[in-house]
Structures are given as C-alpha cells and as structure tokens.
C-alpha cells in the first residue's frame, strides 16, 4: 500500500522532487531516527483535480458511456456514487 520509506532529512533535501507527482503516487512513510513515525499523503482535493482532468480524455471514444462512469464511481460500501 505504501510506496517509499524515507527519512526526514531526505524529505528536507529533496522536497520538490518528492512532491512533483505526489498526488498520483503512494503515501510516504517518514522515519525519525530509523523508526517510522508519520505517513505523508496528498490531500483528496488534489487527487480529484487529476481525476477531473483525465475524465475528459475518454470523450468521443468508445469508452464515452455514462453507465460506465456511474458503475466505476459507485463504491460497494456506498449507496450513492461519489460526486466529482
């Protein structure tokens, strides 16, 4: 589930590089003194922005079907579809 385990020092030194594609990557486990102490992940709003951008890429293709989106956005544990 979690992608990388990094130290706080590495996060400080490479913050820009680590956060460039942060919204599409797995959360990071931060270590302090060699022991894990925090999980860093992107905000759900950032992931939604990416989903909205990619949602239009199917337009005018054979995958452009409202029923497909309806079934893909409905979680089994939810009664209603997720609103984007």
From TrEMBL:
InterPro entries: YefM-like_sf
Domain of life (superkingdom): Bacteria
Family: Belongs to the phD/YefM antitoxin family.
Protein name from the UniProt record: Antitoxin
Protein source organism: Candidatus Roizmanbacteria bacterium CG22_combo_CG10-13_8_21_14_all_38_20
């Amino acid at each position: 589930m979690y992608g990388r385990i990094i130290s706080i020092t590495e996060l400080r030194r490479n913050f820009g590089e680590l956060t460039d594609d942060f919204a599409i990557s797995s959360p990071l486990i931060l270590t302090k003194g060699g022991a894990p102490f925090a999980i860093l992940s992107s905000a759900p709003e950032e992931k939604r922005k990416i989903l909205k951008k990619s949602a239009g890429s199917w337009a005018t293709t054979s995958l452009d079907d409202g029923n497909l989106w309806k079934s893909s956005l409905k979680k089994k544990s939810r009664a209603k579809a997720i609103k984007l």
